[in-house]
Design goal:
This protein is 49% helix and 16% strand. It is of the alpha/beta class and 263 residues long.
Length: 263
């Protein structure tokens, strides 16, 4: 891997897009390496992922304009599909993924962060979909995920005007879950990921699938999806251990209670 690094920290996997000289811009090779990295994650040894960018200036500054500038219509569509396929794999990945956004998250950078389950960012983060200024549309899911996350009106405003927003506004409109000082971002991401990793892994994975799949259908169908995934948790070691521990603690608590006596 030339542009992607992977680190295993206990049950947490950390994926870093490592192309700092180009502000971590996404070209075909970066997308291919990210795709291969996701395929190589050990799902038995990992319970959460963190996605970030190398350096403190840029998470991902966007797709590589140098590569895109000479594409034909057919090649442009194929490049969009390549990005969408990888981002969709990230979005539907069995494990929760936290985007730790440090610096620029523009175009493809904003789009890849939106493919993650949770976004947190540093106070120097800048988000935007500037594609119309380049004569194109967002091509890696930006027109779809941004509207779902912040509402159609705000998404249209950001996309039509190509205006970038800072971390505080991204938090205000619900694009990110939290903002941290730059030097605290990765510690916060690791702490959140460790908190997820402490929970029952089958239940967490089923929750992700229930939420994602349920958002694509009406409520009647969504409830059925939840019922099936709820039922799927039973008879697992996680469910037996989790409920067994709760009942044991409840029993111990009751034994410590001294009954009131009338004198």
């Amino acid at each position: 891997m030339e542009f992607i690094t992977y680190e295993q920290d206990g049950f947490v996997g950390i994926i870093t897009i490592n192309r700092p000289k180009a502000l971590n811009a996404l070209n075909s090779q970066v997308l291919e390496e990210l795709d291969a990295t996701l395929d190589a994650v050990d799902l038995d040894a990992t319970r959460a992922l963190i996605l970030t960018g190398a350096g403190d200036k840029s998470f991902v500054a966007g797709a590589d304009i140098g590569e895109m500038s000479t594409l034909t219509k057919a090649e442009g569509e194929a490049f969009g599909k390549k990005g969408n396929d990888v981002f969709r794999k990230l979005e539907t990945f069995p494990l929760p993924v936290i985007a730790a956004v440090n610096g620029f998250a523009l175009g493809g950078g904003c789009e890849i962060s939106m493919s993650c389950d949770i976004r947190i960012c540093s106070d120097n983060a800048i988000f935007g979909q500037p594609e119309v200024g380049l004569g194109i549309t967002p091509g890696f899911g930006g027109t779809q995920r941004l509207a779902r996350l912040v509402g159609a009106g705000m998404a249209k405003q950001m996309i039509y005007t190509a205006r970038n927003i800072k971390a505080d506004e991204a938090y205000r409109i619900g694009l990110v879950n939290a903002v941290y000082p730059q030097d605290e971002l990765m510690d916060a991401a690791k702490k959140m990921a460790a908190g997820i990793a402490m929970q029952a892994p089958i239940a967490v994975r089923n929750c992700k699938k229930a939420i994602n799949d349920g958002l694509d259908v009406d409520m009647d169908q969504a409830i059925v999806i939840e019922e099936k995934l709820f039922g799927d948790c039973f008879e697992t070691e996680d469910q037996r251990a989790g409920m067994g521990n709760f009942l044991e603690k409840d029993k111990e608590k009751k034994l410590k209670v001294v009954p009131f006596q009338n004198k």
